[in-house]
Amino acid sequence: MRVLSCKFLGRVVNSTLPNVKPVRSFSRNLPAMVKVGDALPAVDLFEDSPANKINTGDLVNGKKVIIFGVPGAFTPGCSKTHLPGYVSSAAELKSKQGVDEIVCVSVNDPFVMSAWGKEHGAGGKVRLLADPAGGFTKALDVSIDLPPLGGVRSKRYSLVVENGKVTELNVEPDGTGLSCSLANNIGKK
């Protein structure tokens, strides 16, 4: 017999159990990070305002699209290096690599993303899409907890999607660095 003790309503309760070995069983479906060959999750993002939903499944259907994720609009690395690199390389990426669209995603609201894009002259070059609740970021399993930036944000990454399938993926090893996810590394793998 096995004696089981537990606290119930502030009292210790003892119970006897037959000779049964305790079994620890945990079941949790954890998302797995997106990988090359996966279908891009279809999630609603927002462009310019909450009224303008853009579904990622529709966005990439029949196209070659670069999507890059950043921890936050107006943050130093994103504003000085990441977004400007894609804005300045947009014409070359589109002409030489056959890219139809370049999209920047961040866990921000659509108004912030719109203002950030205007500040960097992204119009016609890079679309800035907001992932306000982090649904797309979580579906890709590229979220990172950054309390100084407000909590759950996106790791820094880039991916190439062709007709809905991920064909290239670059996730910064520490989630926030500026190396493999930069515009000049697209198509180098």
UniProtKB/TrEMBL annotation:
EC supergroup of this enzyme: oxidoreductase
Pfam family, any one: Redoxin
Catalysed reactions, semicolon-separated: a hydroperoxide + [thioredoxin]-dithiol = an alcohol + [thioredoxin]-disulfide + H2O
InterPro entries (UniProt xref): PRX5-like, Redoxin, Thioredoxin-like_sf, Thioredoxin_domain
Active site: C78
Record domain Thioredoxin: where: 34-189
PROSITE patterns from the UniProt entry: THIOREDOXIN_2
Gene Ontology annotations for the cellular component aspect, listed alphabetically: mitochondrion; peroxisome
Enzyme Commission identifier(s): 1.11.1.24
GO MF annotation list: thioredoxin peroxidase activity
Alphabetical keyword list: Antioxidant, Oxidoreductase, Peroxidase, Redox-active center
GO terms (BP aspect): cell redox homeostasis; cellular response to oxidative stress; hydrogen peroxide catabolic process
Protein family (similarity comment): Belongs to the peroxiredoxin family. Prx5 subfamily.
Function field: Thiol-specific peroxidase that catalyzes the reduction of hydrogen peroxide and organic hydroperoxides to water and alcohols, respectively. Plays a role in cell protection against oxidative stress by detoxifying peroxides and as sensor of hydrogen peroxide-mediated signaling events.
Record-given protein name: Peroxiredoxin-5
Organism: Drosophila guanche
